[in-house]
Specification:
Length: 168
Amino acid sequence: MWWFNRIVCSLWFLVRSYHYEPRTIYHKPTRGFSLLESLIATAIVGIGFTGVYSMIVLSEQFTKWAIARQKLQLYANQMLEVIESDIANIDSYNLSFTTCTDPGAVTTVYLLRGYEWCTRMNAQMGAAGTDTRSITITTPSTNKRNVLIRLEAYGAKAQVIMERSYGI
């Protein structure tokens, strides 16, 4: 039977010789990362951190503008309440808060309040600069007054516009 085993082995050899099979070369397994892989990973992580940091900076700016808008809203409401309580002198409240001028020894209530509002806004949100901060009183008819309050801060990024009509 040894000869049968020999024939089968030789036939198997012939069959395998016609069928090409590339030899695989086995390398010794390596540990760790190559320098190129490390550089690519560092670049990807760096880009990710840069994106997250820029989002944090933008979020901080938007929060600052939202807080300023709420403060301006509070100032505008306070101004309207004061004007409503002093309705007899409503035409005197036509004020601009671009620059704060100290009324000095003048005891006129609307000038003192205007100076107080202006200094408070400048202390909280900086000088007006190019921002519009004003109270405008218009007279559409003889017994009606429209009060328009326009307050801006941070280059008009935060702005409040309020309008109210009063019958006199």
